Amino acid sequence: MPVPMIIDTDPGVDDAFAIALALCSPEVDVRAVVATYGNVGRDRTFSNLRRILALAGRGDIPAAAGAQRPLVHPQGETAPDWHGADGLGLRADDFPAPGPADPRQGVELMADTLLGAAEPVTLVCLGPLTDAALLLASRPDLAPRLGRIVVMGGSMGAGNTRGAGEFNLYADPEAAHRVLTQPDVPVTLVPLDVTMACRVDGPWLDELAGAGPRTTVLVSSAALYRRTFLDRHGSDSVALHDTLAVLEATVPGTLRTTPFPLAVACSQGPERGVMVVDRRGGDDAPRVDVALDVDVPSATAEVGRRIRALG
Ligand code: RIB
Ligand code: CA
Hints:
Layout: E1 3-9, H1 13-23, E2 28-35, H2 42-55, E3 63-65, H3 80-83, H4 106-115, E4 121-125, H5 130-138, E5 146-152, H6 167-171, H7 173-180, E6 187-190, H8 192-195, E7 200-201, H9 202-209, H10 213-220, H11 223-233, E8 237-238, H12 241-250, E9 256-264, E10 275-277, E11 287-293, H13 296-307
Parallel strand pairs: 1-2, 1-4, 2-3, 4-5, 5-6, 6-11
Antiparallel strand pairs: 7-8, 9-10, 9-11
Helix pairs in contact: 1-12, 1-13, 4-5, 5-7, 9-10
Calcium ion is lined by residues 9-10, 12, 14-15, 38-39, 126-127, 242.
């Protein structure tokens, strides 16, 4: 029986690959998708999300607009250098026109989806955690209907923003702290440590592009992302961060995790958005299962194999 899934996302190039991965995975049933601000502004991420669904022929999946801004402070940075001003590598117009927009607000769609699910739902968060925090704060009665939350975010080491943090947690540290320290729903965190280890190279992208017209459009959206990785990291390979979170949500246990109590720095100094790990794990604070180890060749091959089914 496929596991019901809700995806909250800020497409975003790697988000696009991750959403395609979920739609091509028979183990999960994507019941709803919500667009949050993040890589680019919420209106663009919402339009991109519905373009991606249209590309996959899944305009039937309810798609709603989520948060437009963080809970407390203005967003520190967006990511047009990586994802283009349009959020899809300046290739948004190569995608089909956006499909239908659900009239509900994102958290409302999430709540209705949870109420309508007979089985526990997996919530996958691929952008800032604002919507997830709002859901947990406004509808704590629905927490038992969540089987798990899988988050792409954080880093045990260096971040990837102007600050010291990783982009998704840095975008809304208050929301991230809320989600990563709550005791009600199990959380698996997929940090940069593992996503950067799972970079895919040019041949991997080229092979995927050759699977059909849809994957050609998808891979073409990664051209700018690929150039920026080459410029910033000196190698012709890209980290499709969000795909690892979806792979773990789809095939639990793909990533090897270690439980840690976490916190997120919410001060306004240079440490803002940094994930603080209590490596002693001493007190009875809720643990987050942090993914720190993966069979890289197996995971990257599996992601490619599944997305090829898009055709
Ligand atoms: O730090 C990487 C994360 O930030 C990914 O989810 C990427 O899409 C951006 O949202
Ligand atoms: Ca993302």
